[in-house]
Write a sequence for this structure.
């Protein structure tokens, strides 16, 4: 685990307040460490200034890899390696290859994206990720600041002013 | 804000309609075919295409209402207007039914009464076996009954929706009325469209059938409907209307265009592969004829309706940019029109040959004897208007498209574009994908 951080965070009861607060914090040039929500909040990413994820590009590459693996693999197997006649069809029966090509495309893309996602986010078996507050998995929306990057008193007054229902400090 | 259907737009659409009428009229005289096969097949092709688009607009609107969806509400008047085109489309289909009954054409294989007469040399056991359903009574009756039911429900929904736009407050009473009609409409639209697709399109090749055909054709209509919705909204935005329709709405429409193009491909391919794999002669003949005689269209169909939207609309930003989305919408609309061409023309030509009428454009194209597709399959002759769309077909398409737009814009211009009192309007105005 990385070295511990002193953080200060505010909890909000409503996603609309959260988005307004994030917008205000960025306008005040307060460096937000992270935002935690119990569900994906629409429109939060652009407000946070996050760039678009490139995971889907990786997904496309994995998918094409799956397509080629399946199609070229079957082509090799059924024309060179072990040609068998099925139902009087030619060895190289493209329509019959399509369903398996489709399946492997989906399989490669999905597994590849999941693995990539886990690696990029440092997730995996045995990794312990500290939960700032258990209620962020239930009904609270959280904006967290790293105390070493911001002026704590300024953040505190900001959180109070932007409608946070609770303000806490913690070392994680 | 109300859409003002300007005189200039009307004039352009009227010019398009005149072009269409001229092209349709010329196809009546095209060739020496006494049955005017080119005319009737073009007429059927375009009528059924646009009627289906209207039905699908109503169907999807009712699905959305029933599913408590709110995102589309800002432009729901467009779908209401498109669905009203059934008032034109159903009479067009009825006209075809009546002319089939009067033997003015040979669009449908089953329409020849000698085929179900056991004493006649033309007696055909397959046609006779299906004659309980494939007959003019069912054709006309189905068109009238389902057409009236569809028009009734969609008109009721529209009129309640208009009343809601004028007087509805924060109450849900009017919306519950719409929901009731929408939910009742869905089974009629679902089962009715399947039955009418069997009658209107699949029965052209009356020996052949596919249990996936209704789905596949319905998906084709659906994608065309989404494409035409995108084009209409882009046009209206370009004219300064519908500021409230945002990139988010277009993004969702783009997703539907993308997703249902794939859905269409899935159905197209499933139908094709099962028939290819089973290799039963009566079924395979359908594709054999299309692959060998219409190779360009057969593969272009897949490229235009699957490969192009799949790769172009795959990215996030291409669904949000007006240029790329509009391009794909136009392309796919034309592509599905080609798909219907491919559904209708080969079977009609086959029937016309059996009926003894030469199809006019034939240049040394097995005159005299019946068009035995099994043996004639090697030939691949391009004939404008028959194996690929010619100028008259394109012109007719433009004419019908202009008629469609003229009707939709006329209906649309009668009431404000946005229903201020719909309970979901706020959700729609703040839509985020």
């Amino acid at each position: 685990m990385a070295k511990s951080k002193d953080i200060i965070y505010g909890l909000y009861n409503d996603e609309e307040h959260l988005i307004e607060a994030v917008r205000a914090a960025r306008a005040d040039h307060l460096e937000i460490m992270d935002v935690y929500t119990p569900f994906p909040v629409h429109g939060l990413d652009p407000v946070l200034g996050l760039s678009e994820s490139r995971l889907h590009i990786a997904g496309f590459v994995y998918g094409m890899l799956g397509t080629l693996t399946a199609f070229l693999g079957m082509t090799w197997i059924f024309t060179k390696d072990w040609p068998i006649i099925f139902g009087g069809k030619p060895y190289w029966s493209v329509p019959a290859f399509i369903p398996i090509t489709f399946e492997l495309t989906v399989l490669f893309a999905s597994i590849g994206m999941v693995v990539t996602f886990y690696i990029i986010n440092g997730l995996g078996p045995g990794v312990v990720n500290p939960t700032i507050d258990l209620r962020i998995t239930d009904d609270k929306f959280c904006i967290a600041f790293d105390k070493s990057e911001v002026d704590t008193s300024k953040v505190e007054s900001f959180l109070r002013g932007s409608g946070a229902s609770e303000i806490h400090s913690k070392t994680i | 804000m109300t859409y003002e259907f300007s005189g200039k737009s009307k004039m352009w659409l009227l010019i398009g309609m005149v072009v269409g009428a001229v092209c349709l009229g010329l196809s009546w005289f095209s060739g020496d075919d006494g049955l005017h096969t080119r005319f009737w097949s073009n007429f059927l092709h375009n009528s059924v295409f646009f009627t289906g688009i209207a039905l699908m607009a109503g169907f999807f609107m009712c699905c959305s209402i029933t599913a408590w969806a709110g995102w589309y509400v800002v432009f729901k008047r467009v779908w209401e207007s498109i669905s009203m085109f059934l008032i034109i489309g159903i009479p067009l289909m009825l006209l075809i039914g009546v002319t089939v009954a009067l033997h003015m054409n040979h669009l449908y294989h089953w329409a020849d009464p000698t085929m179900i007469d056991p004493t006649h040399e033309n007696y055909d056991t397959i046609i006779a076996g299906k004659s309980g359903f494939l007959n003019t009574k069912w054709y006309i009756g189905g068109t009238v009954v389902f057409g009236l039911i569809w028009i009734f429900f969609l008109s009721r929904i529209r009129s309640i929706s208009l009343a809601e736009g004028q007087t509805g407050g924060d109450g849900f009473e009017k919306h519950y009325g719409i929901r009731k009609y929408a939910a009742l409409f869905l089974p009629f639209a679902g089962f009715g469209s399947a039955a009418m697709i069997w009658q209107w399109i699949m029965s052209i090749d009356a020996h052949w059938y596919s249990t996936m055909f209704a789905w596949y054709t319905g998906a084709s209509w659906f994608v065309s409907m989404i494409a035409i919705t995108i084009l209409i909204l882009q046009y209206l935005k370009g004219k300064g209307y519908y500021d409230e329709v945002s990139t988010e709405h277009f993004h969702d429409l783009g997703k539907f265009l993308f997703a249902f193009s794939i859905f269409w491909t899935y159905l197209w391919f499933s139908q094709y592969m099962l028939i290819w794999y089973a290799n039963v002669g009566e079924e395979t003949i359908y594709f054999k004829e299309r692959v060998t005689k219409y190779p360009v269209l057969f593969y272009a169909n897949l490229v235009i309706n699957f490969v192009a939207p799949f790769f172009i609309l795959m990215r996030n930003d291409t669904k949000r940019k007006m240029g790329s989305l509009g391009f794909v919408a136009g392309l796919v609309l034309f592509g599905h029109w080609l798909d219907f061409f491919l559904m209708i023309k080969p079977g009609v030509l086959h029937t016309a040959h059996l009926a003894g009428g030469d199809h006019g454009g034939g240049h040394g194209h097995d005159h005299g004897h019946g068009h035995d597709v099994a043996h004639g399959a090697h030939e691949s002759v391009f004939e404008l208007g028959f194996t690929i769309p010619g100028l008259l077909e394109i012109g007719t398409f433009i004419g019908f498209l202009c008629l469609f737009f003229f009707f939709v814009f006329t209906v649309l211009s009668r009431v404000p574009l946005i229903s201020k009192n719909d309970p979901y309007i706020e959700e729609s105005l703040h839509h985020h994908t």
